[in-house]
Structure formats: structure tokens, C-alpha cells
Amino acid sequence: MNKPQIFNIIKFTGKSILVLLTGILIFAYSIALIEKIKRPTFKNLPTNEFIIIGIILLILIFVNLKWVFGIFKTKPNEK
After folding, report:
1. How do residues 48-64 score in pLDDT, each as one tens digit?
2. How far apart are CA 27 and CA 75, in angstroms?
């Protein structure tokens, strides 16, 4: 195996871990948020902390869309 192949394997592994971690966090956050809406005193976690965690998850989703899936890539200028 040469260096570019190893580098590509490391990049793929890192991107896979990022997607998996984001998915797990979104799943856990969704369950906690639904319970917080049903029972406002659930887990004694203030609403403003839920908002902060939600913003962090939105940033993670944006990073996944940009880096992993390449959705927001700009095309190079053609001359």
C-alpha cells in the first residue's frame, strides 16, 4: 500500500466516524427533546442547554454535509 491509499483510508474512516457520531447524537437528542416537550421537568436540564446542544448538532450536520457528502462545494472558476 502506498501513502495516498493509506491517507484515503484514514480520511474515509474519519468521515465515517463523524457521520456515525452525529447520527448517534441526533438520535439521543431527539429522544431527550421529545421527553422534555412532554414533561418539562424531565432530567432537570434547562431549556437553554437544549438550545445550545441543538445549535451544536446543527453545526455538526452542516460539517457533515460540507466535508463528508460534499454538498456545498463551489466549482472552480473556469477560464
Report:
1. 888 888 899 989 888 88
2. 33
Determine the Cα–Cα distance for residues 28 and 47; give it in Å rounded to an integer: 16
Q: State how far the Cα of 67 lies from the Cα of 12, in Å rounded to an integer.
A: 11
For residues 18 and 59, give the distance between their C-alpha atoms in angstroms, rounded to a whole number.
Answer: 12
Q: Is the pTM of this model over 0.90?
A: no
Helical spans, DSSP H, in the chain: 3-38, 47-63
Rg of the chain over all Cα atoms, to the nearest angstrom: 18
* Greatest alpha-carbon span in the chain: 60
Q: What is d(CA 40, CA 23) in angstroms, rounded to the nearest whole number?
A: 25
Whether 78 has a pLDDT exceeding 60, the answer reads: no
The span from the CA of 73 to the CA of 75, in Å, is: 7
